[in-house]
Specification:
Layout: E1 10-14, E2 18-23, E3 31-34, E4 37-43, H1 48-56, E5 72-77, H2 80-84, E6 91-93, E7 96-97, E8 100-101, H3 104-119, E9 128-132, H4 138-151, E10 156-161, H5 162-169, E11 175-180, E12 185-191, E13 194-195, E14 201-203, H6 207-220, E15 231-237, E16 240-245, H7 253-271, E17 290-293, E18 299-302, H8 305-311, H9 338-347, H10 351-358, E19 361-364, H11 373-384, E20 393-394, H12 399-403, H13 405-414, E21 424-425, H14 426-432, H15 437-440
Parallel strand pairs: 1-9, 9-10, 11-19, 19-20
Antiparallel strand pairs: 1-2, 2-3, 4-5, 4-6, 7-8, 10-21, 11-12, 12-13, 12-14, 15-16, 17-18
Length: 442
């Protein structure tokens, strides 16, 4: 149907941390940018005089008049460049929480940015393959289909589950996918190309949570991370710099946090690695320090935190020992480490495929590309799994492939000849409506 050489499908994977977009058949996404956006609220033209009056008596601009239905429009800034530029009163918003889209308006802007500014295409001319979370709700799928067909007028659409795409990327039809991304970690069993819904386990601990742990831990040791916009470096003599602090009183808290997170996340990726055995303070007390130079020129030394932070994935109760993180997650939720989630998920599957799942555990997602994570998970699972099981954790040696495995699976799937009759076409959408997607995309 769309298998011609002229038109290639577009593969879109909107994760909780980054959005990946590109052409089917290629080996890496063309565009990768944050899936958070900057938002500045602008009130309608009528309110400008009233706003300036409101500020005179010491109250903030548009707050007192919210009751009178002022028209508030948002200006959204999408993409790493737009976000890297500090603006007054710009809030940083994320459209996704726990894999569920809360704000479709932002998602619409992110898609638009991907098509028009990064890939430079007209969506009317390309079929779209969207990656979706393994536990996506029917309402979310129908909303995505409506937006794609009605606003972007795409000729055809397909929704594929993240876990299925990851298993395709590694060339398997049956696997247990451990997808540890920015917002959460999901373990899902895939059998013959279908996700077994009853065996999906999720945990709110993902890359962003680990970044927060690292930030709080450094702050408790008196290390301050200065966001890039808050200082200027001047060269006084060759090789010697002086840092001048800049003051921007109108910067929002969420933007300050976002800018600090970008730096903390880089520290995490550079120095952290999963410890070989469960972390304990005594064993890591005299570990050699690793230096890291912050953007403002100060060099910090990171010791036991390099191992403690990643170990939160295996032993979630560790985060409560970090000052400032005690109440970060609702304590009524049962928190399980990665090995427990894997075993729990496999035990919910039929007995006859458990053995196969144990021997093909796939690691995917940005957080999963951390050093030593694969070895540690394999070691823990061998200890906890039944004797008869042969445990094998598979992860691409290439960190890029691990990070983009969902996108790569989509790229493989959408370029297969045998897949071309599977598309949900615009004609079918017009005939049967959005609910037909449940039948077309299982």
């Amino acid at each position: 149907m769309y298998g011609g050489d002229e038109v290639s499908a577009i593969v879109l994977d909107l994760g909780s941390h980054t959005c990946k977009a590109g052409y089917a058949g290629e080996d890496a996404p063309k565009a990768v940018f944050p899936s958070v956006v900057g938002s500045i609220e602008q009130t309608g033209a009528v309110d400008n005089e009233r706003d300036s009056e409101a500020t005179v008596d010491g109250k903030s601009g548009n707050r007192p008049f919210e009751a009178e239905k002022t028209k508030i429009r948002r200006k959204l800034y999408v993409g790493s460049q737009a976000l890297g530029y500090r603006r007054d009163h710009m809030e940083v918003l994320s459209p996704i929480r726990d894999g569920v889209v809360l704000d479709w308006d932002i998602v619409d802007n992110i898609w638009d940015h991907a098509f028009r500014e990064r890939l430079l295409i007209d969506p009317k001319e390309h079929p779209m393959l969207l990656a979706e979370p393994s536990s996506n709700t029917p309402q979310q799928r129908e909303k995505a289909a409506e937006l794609m067909f009605e606003k972007y007028q795409v000729p055809a659409l397909f929704l594929a589950k993240n876990a299925v795409l990851t298993s395709f990327a590694s060339g398997r039809a049956t696997a247990l996918v451990v997808d540890s991304g920015g917002g959460s970690t999901t373990v899902a069993a895939v059998h013959d190309g279908y996700v077994l819904q009853k065996a999906v386990a999720t945990s709110p601990i993902g890359g962003e949570f680990l970044t927060d742990c690292l930030m709080k831990s450094l702050e408790s040791k008196g290390i301050t991370i200065k966001p890039r916009y808050s200082f200027k470096r001047k060269e006084i003599r060759t090789g010697e710099f002086q840092t001048v602090d800049l003051d921007f009183p109108n910067t929002t808290e969420s933007y300050r946090l976002y800018s600090k997170r970008v730096i903390a996340s880089d520290i995490k990726e550079c120095v952290c690695r999963a410890p070989d055995a469960a972390y304990d303070d005594a064993g890591y007390a005299n570990i050699p320090m690793t230096p890291y130079e912050l953007p403002d020129g100060q060099t910090i030394e990171i010791g036991a935190d390099r191992f403690k932070i990643p170990d939160v994935l295996f032993n979630p109760s560790l985060f409560q020992t970090i000052p400032g993180m005690e109440n970060a997650i609702d304590s009524s939720l049962p928190l399980r480490g990665l090995p427990q989630m894997v075993i729990e998920s496999i035990n919910k599957c039929d007995a006859d495929i458990r053995r196969e799942l144990f021997s093909s555990i796939l690691l995917a997602g940005g957080t999963a590309s951390m050093q030593q994570l694969k070895e540690r998970l394999e070691k823990d699972l061998i200890e906890e799994a039944p004797q008869a099981a042969r445990v094998k954790v598979l992860a691409s040696g290439n960190a890029t492939e691990r990070r983009f495995s969902v996108w790569i699976g989509g790229s493989i799937l959408a370029s297969l000849g045998s897949f071309q009759q599977m598309w949900f076409s615009k004609a079918e959408f017009e005939e049967h409506g959005a609910s037909y997607i449940q039948r077309k995309c299982p």
